[in-house]
Write a structure and sequence with these properties.
By secondary structure, the protein is α+β, with helices and mostly antiparallel strands. It has one domain: Ribosomal Protein S8, Chain: A, domain 1, CATH 3.30.1370.110. Helix content is 36%, strand content 12%. The protein contains six helices and five strands; from the N terminus they run ααβαβαβαββα. The protein has a five-stranded mixed sheet, sandwiched between helices. Helix 4 links the parallel strand 2 and strand 3. The longest helix is centred in the middle third of the chain and has 18 residues. The radius of gyration is 29 Å and the shape is elongated. The relative contact order is 0.16.
Amino acid sequence: MARQREQELFSRSVGPVTPLPVRDLACLQRPRPAPIPRMRQLDEAQVLRSSLSDDFDPVTLMETDDRLAYHRSGVGPDVLKDLRQGRWTVQGQIDLHGLRRDAAREALGNFLAEAARQGWRCVRVVHGKGLGSPGREPVLKGKVASWLAQRRDVLAYTQARGPDGGAGALIVLLEGRSPRPRHLRRWLGVND
């Protein structure tokens, strides 16, 4: 009885009421983000670690002058010459010196994957001169050269010119791929 009386009082105080028409309402539930394929990423990292051998000797594939240089079969010597003379613009770089071998291998693989995503053609890989190593011998220099020579996306590399790192760095030419624009990656749900 009291409840009915309250409803009557409320109706008198408010007056006649008409409900608002139903319109398109905004969806308050956010779309779920695309799943991140963690297992696939871990598998790819494992494949990368196992695919780049420390026992591979790139000396058999290199130019025979005193500078460290390599070009894949089918890549003309003029490409290597242009790379050596600094005619390619370096679009990115990674500094590996100071890292242990396994960490350097993984960092290099991740960097080259990012370079491919960005569509970079020319990058600098700083491996160091080995001045802080036991016996002052460069540990990573030969390893990096070996790892790069084993990759299909590396067309050529050469020792950097003096101002660009000299004997402590390599300038690397990569296969060309056009990157997906950031807005397109977002639209496709690709998490880089």
